[in-house]
Write a structure and sequence with these properties.
Blueprint (H helix, E strand, L loop, with lengths): L1 H20 L3 H5 L3 H31 L6 H23 L6 H26 L1 H54 L2 E16 L5 E15 L2 H27 L1 H11 L4 H13 L3 H18 L1 H7 L5 H29 L1
Antiparallel strand pairs: 1-2
Length: about 350
């Protein structure tokens, strides 16, 4: 009974694998143990890669894509698994041994190992990364505060300089206004007066200048008032900037704290402050990268490093037979046309 269950389970797995990976079940029935063992090796490699990249996809969706539902994260995880399986199918379903395809798979493996090791490192070094992120954010806040404070100081210095310039220009005007608050203003008007009479006895009129002297406030007073108003506005602006400077630390802290941590920011902090600074972290990352790289090229080495199994030989023989038949058919057609 136990052996029957094992046989049924193995048959179900093989059927699933052949449908999923592209092997023809009918051809596989003609093959020996070598093909079944090759299929089991591919199954193990795919299972390992699927689990790893499914986990990477789930973690990536949870942390960086902002997905909250488990279903959405599972969809992203399934997409990662589908991509990996599709890539491996290029190797498994290739007839013969193609070095170009294998080389491209190794290049893809390098990129995938780098990406996978980096994402895993961000999860493994989560606590260290949080501390490093806090220090990085504090440094960012200090830089922003210093830059803005320098800008505010320059603006305040410019406004104070303008106030001093206006005050210096008003000194002589104050002296002049205090000595002559009232000035005499000459107003000239044209007035019409009787110049005489004409031959009929009617009055004739002419124009003459009339000069009036009146006392008016010194116009310098208006200039002084305008200058004082400008100084007052500048001082209000200085007070506003000073208040902004006093609240600068709190304002910048609120701005930086509300900014979500991005993938590139965490990646930069991870390599700059943890991996590049800690020899232990460097050794761990190298080991993890080599492990991921080995897994990524596992299928390539299994396909390229061993002799073809009888399944590959049968498929290749069918291809050769089909190719020969098509050539004979083409030759017969050409001979018929020549006749």
């Amino acid at each position: 009974m136990v052996f029957e269950l094992e046989a049924a389970f193995e048959t179900a797995i093989i059927n699933l694998l052949t449908e999923k990976y592209g092997w023809d079940p009918e051809i596989l029935k003609e093959c020996g143990e070598a093909s079944y063992r090759a299929l089991r090796k591919y199954m193990s490699a795919f299972l390992i890669l699927g689990l790893i990249w499914g986990t990477i996809g789930y973690l990536f969706a949870d942390k960086y894509l902002g997905l909250e539902s488990i279903f959405s994260k599972a969809c992203v995880s399934s997409a990662f698994i589908a991509v990996v399986i599709s890539i491996e199918r290029f190797i498994i379903l290739k007839i013969g041994k193609d070095k170009t395809t294998a080389t491209m798979r190794v290049i893809i493996a390098l990129l995938m190992a780098t990406l996978g090791a980096t994402i895993f490192d961000q999860m493994i070094f989560r606590n260290d990364l949080e501390v490093a992120m806090q220090n990085s954010r504090l440094e960012m806040e200090r830089n922003i505060v210093n830059d803005r404070a320098e800008f505010i100081d320059k603006e305040i210095a410019k406004l104070n300089h303008d106030i001093d310039s206006i005050s210096h220009a008003l000194v002589p005007k104050y002296a002049e206004f205090s000595s002559k608050p009232i000035v005499q203003s000459v107003i000239k008007n044209k007035v019409q007066k009787v110049a005489g009479t004409d031959s009929t006895g009617k009055a004739s009129y002419g124009w003459e200048d009339q000069v009036d002297v009146v006392s008016v406030p010194n116009p310098i007073g208006n200039q002084i008032a305008s200058g004082e108003e400008t100084k007052k506005n500048f001082q209000i602006r200085i007070d506003t900037l000073s208040n902004q400077k006093n609240r600068l630390v709190q304002t910048v802290h609120a701005e930086v704290s509300s900014k979500p941590a991005g993938f590139l920011e965490e990646l930069t902090v991870l390599f700059r402050d943890i991996i590049m600074e800690e020899p232990v972290a460097q050794a761990f990352y190298i080991c993890l990268f080599l492990f991921m790289m080995s897994l990524e090229i596992l299928v390539v080495t299994a396909k390229m490093g061993e002799k073809d199994c009888d399944y590959d030989l049968i498929v290749e023989r069918q291809l050769n037979i089909k190719e020969a038949a098509m050539r004979r058919s083409q030759q017969e057609l050409e001979d018929t046309l020549e006749r």
